[in-house]
Amino acid sequence: MTASRHFLKGPIPWEGWMVRAIPLPGRALPVALAIWLWAGMTKKRTVRLSMMYVFPSLSISRYSVYRALCSLEHAGLIRVRRRRGHAPIVTIVMVTEQQPQPKHARTRRSHHSARASFAVKE
After folding, report:
1. CATH second-level architecture of 14-116?
2. Closest CA to 105 of 80, 82, 79, 77
3. What is the per-residue pLDDT across 30-48, written as a single tens digit (0 to 9) for each?
C-alpha cells in the first residue's frame, strides 16, 4: 500500500463552513473537500477545478460536480466563474457564524420536503 501525498490543509471553519456544507444534497461534501484540498495545495482560495486532475480518484461524474458546485454556491460557501469549454474557477468564501445562510440554499431536508409536499389529485 502506498501512502498518499495529499492531505487537507486547514483550518477549515467548522461552524461557518462545514456545518453549512454537510447537509447539502448529493456529492456536495466530497466536492467541497476536494476544493479545500486543491486550495491547500495551491495555497490560494481561488482555484481552477480541472475535472481531469481533481476528481478522477473520487469517481464523481462531471455532472455531479456541476450540481455540487451549484449547491455550494447557493449555500454561500463558494463563488464560481464559469466559461464554456473551460474548467470552473472556484473561490472559497470565508463564512462566519453570524452570517445568515441564504434562503435559497438547498439542503437535503428542504429538497426532500419539497418533493414530499406534492399531492396527487384523482
Report:
1. Orthogonal Bundle (1.10)
2. 77
3. 999 999 988 998 899 999 9
